[in-house]
Design a protein that fits this description.
This protein is of the alpha+beta class and 113 residues long. It is 19% helix and 33% strand. A four-stranded antiparallel beta sheet has the order 4-3-5-6. A two-stranded antiparallel sheet has the order 1-2.
Length: 113
């Protein structure tokens, strides 16, 4: 469930009751992490956007382990969320993120009646 939404410089920061990932999370050494988790799909400095281009999370993501977190974001926003690599979600791309280049799109799960 969505706990809070703060706006800072046009970027929304959200905290979620069931998602324990801090905004700006750092997994440590890129080479060290990749060595310890050679089969995982990892994106350092990833960015998560909603379909209307709002950035709602950024930091290091291990998609092999963080699927529940991303699903929680999509469910709480009640819309798809898009994971973009660093270059696609920062710098000039923050204004109009290229969602078509997302490495992952996670759709909300419809609540069961």
């Amino acid at each position: 469930m969505l706990e809070a939404r703060l706006s800072l410089g046009g970027v929304e920061k959200m905290s979620y009751a069931e998602a324990a990932l801090m905004i700006g999370r750092n997994l440590g050494s890129k080479s060290g992490y990749r060595t310890q988790h050679p089969n995982n799909e990892v994106y350092f400095n990833a960015n998560v956007f909603t379909k209307d281009g709002r950035k709602i999370w950024w930091g290091d993501l291990d998609l092999t382990l963080d699927t529940a977190f991303l699903q929680s974001l999509a469910d709480d926003c009640n819309e798809p969320v898009y994971v973009l690599a660093e270059r696609d979600g920062r710098f000039l791309n923050e204004i109009t993120p290229p969602l078509d280049r997302a490495v992952r799109k996670i759709c909300p799960v419809s609540p069961t009646p």
